[in-house]
Amino acid sequence: MANIKDIAKAAGVSSATVSRVINQNGYVSEETRKKVELVIQQLDYVPNLNAVYLKKGATKTLGIVAPYFSDSLTVFLRGFTLSAQKEGYNVTLFMTGDDKQKELDAFEMLRRKQLDGLLLLIRLNDWKQLEPFTKYGPIVTWQRVESDHIPSVFMNHYDGYMLGLEHLYATGCRNIVNLYGSTSGLNTKSRMKAYLDFCEKYHLNPNLQPQFKGLNSSEDGEKVAHWWKEQSTKPDGFATSSDAVAAGLITEAKRLGVRVPDAFSVVGFDNIEIARLLDITTIDYPIEKQAQNAFTLIFNQLTHRENPLIPLDFHLIKRHTTK
Amino acid sequence: MANIKDIAKAAGVSSATVSRVINQNGYVSEETRKKVELVIQQLDYVPNLNAVYLKKGATKTLGIVAPYFSDSLTVFLRGFTLSAQKEGYNVTLFMTGDDKQKELDAFEMLRRKQLDGLLLLIRLNDWKQLEPFTKYGPIVTWQRVESDHIPSVFMNHYDGYMLGLEHLYATGCRNIVNLYGSTSGLNTKSRMKAYLDFCEKYHLNPNLQPQFKGLNSSEDGEKVAHWWKEQSTKPDGFATSSDAVAAGLITEAKRLGVRVPDAFSVVGFDNIEIARLLDITTIDYPIEKQAQNAFTLIFNQLTHRENPLIPLDFHLIKRHTTK
DNA sequence: TTGTAGGCGTTATCAC
DNA sequence: GTGATAACGCCTACAA
């Protein structure tokens, strides 16, 4: 593989001149430029990026870290990658499984100058472990974080969830069951708070029904359909934390001969493809915009700009799983 | 940021010794090792990977290239990334949209030593454009390729599609419509060949129904439901090229009050989550295993091994959209 | 067991 | 306009 010196030699100039030609800065006479470009063509030369990166101290590469990739994470991933590529950044994926060490490895890459910035979608380690890495480059999170040092594109799920609860109430539900997701983040806490406030507002008893937590997949939703069938005093509405759970609940109910929304109403969350397909009433959650904002936050830090963020709002998508 | 010389100075040794400690090769006395490790701790030192890569001429990073990320591509992405990470490789994502130049950019990264190998999921450029890059590192494709130089984890869709057709026939369908996907690759050609052979075998007229090509999304499937409703002599079976299309067809049919499989049968393809959720009879397509094989092919080339590949087979998953 | 020094391939600061 | 040359930070013969 030819290097810059080979080009210089073959063109009868110094490597400094070749570098100027490549990077199009500094003065080069038209004549020598032509000559150098010709040689570059002939020798099929291309600069070694590792050398460039070493010299420049940056790689134009961002990392994106998550334990797995669900539907909504994929949407985020897509939006972020597209934004990044638009500005000339590549994106490296770190799938951490449930391995905390893998997450730390990704952060190490930032420290080791392999990554210019990092997007953390779902966190595994404590913030105390991760926070020290902020000094090596911009880090942005999706989930909310108790620290002021780390910017986040987090949206308070309290508002979105409340939208769903209000809709259930408005359509006649008085005996609502919540299907919460993972309890490790703050979203479930926000949702529980929303539910309590909701109950207080309408003088409902919040302890009428058991708590369901940690539901994530459509399989989880399917189990709930069976649970519902066994109850003597049946709930008339389900508020969920994801469209996948809602989808599982609805499809399994159908298999059991239970009609939605006649028997009960369901509100999903996220507004992903499956919700549209199954006509699930859900809460639209502008993940794509969050992803763009996430990139903007990193980009601004990296380039000392102040590009504006896109404003974010939840809103209800009324479909056919509520009355 | 401390570098190796700072460590050397602080520990009162040479940078060569520090390097030996870091890489655990060469002889270092227990005493100096301890001393050096202590200093590394104290100065919070970690080697700059760009320098390491420059020196070593490899980055332990693989690229994965695709225009977009659909459900099945995401499955592939996941499998590949997990396999790669298991062997210490990172994976960089190149989302090319429909921009041929972006695809070439990714291949350039291979040439520029930023990538040790490349997985190409869906191709945009002609092979003639891409083939020259094989000399810069291992390249593996998902789609079949007319060239012998490029290994592929391609599976001949003829077999899988035939499985679906045979099943439709066995369950009584005699008037089958094919919902083919993109015509740019070879898969659709294989499927069309399968259909012709199928018709010949059972003495069916292959031109009884119009051709549907280029269907990919659930929206496309939905449109077919409307088409079906308008026909006077209605087909009794649909063979599709993706679960998404099948899902759209089925859900829209339901909205139109058409019962599946009473009115017609549907066979999906891929066996992704949505097929399970909607009880779609489909063809299982071991994408995850293909992804693992893809990594193995690259890994073998990179390390001159001969790790075995996982054998791949299609099989029919009978659910409730066929009789 | 340790140190010296050259080289990996660029970029950028000086001179000229 | 162009050319030396010193970094960037690390690894690794080869010496000692």
Automatic annotation (TrEMBL), chains A, B:
<keyword id="KW-0238">DNA-binding</keyword>
<dbReference type="InterPro" id="IPR028082">
    <property type="entry name" value="Peripla_BP_I"/>
</dbReference>
<dbReference type="InterPro" id="IPR000843">
    <property type="entry name" value="HTH_LacI"/>
</dbReference>
<dbReference type="GO" id="GO:0000976">
    <property type="term" value="F:transcription cis-regulatory region binding"/>
</dbReference>
<dbReference type="Pfam" id="PF13377">
    <property type="entry name" value="Peripla_BP_3"/>
</dbReference>
<dbReference type="GO" id="GO:0003700">
    <property type="term" value="F:DNA-binding transcription factor activity"/>
</dbReference>
<dbReference type="InterPro" id="IPR046335">
    <property type="entry name" value="LacI/GalR-like_sensor"/>
</dbReference>
<keyword id="KW-0804">Transcription</keyword>
<feature type="domain" description="HTH lacI-type">
    <location>
        <begin position="2"/>
        <end position="56"/>
    </location>
</feature>
<keyword id="KW-0805">Transcription regulation</keyword>
<protein>
    <submittedName>
        <fullName>Transcriptional regulator of the ntd operon</fullName>
    </submittedName>
</protein>
<dbReference type="Pfam" id="PF00356">
    <property type="entry name" value="LacI"/>
</dbReference>
<dbReference type="InterPro" id="IPR010982">
    <property type="entry name" value="Lambda_DNA-bd_dom_sf"/>
</dbReference>
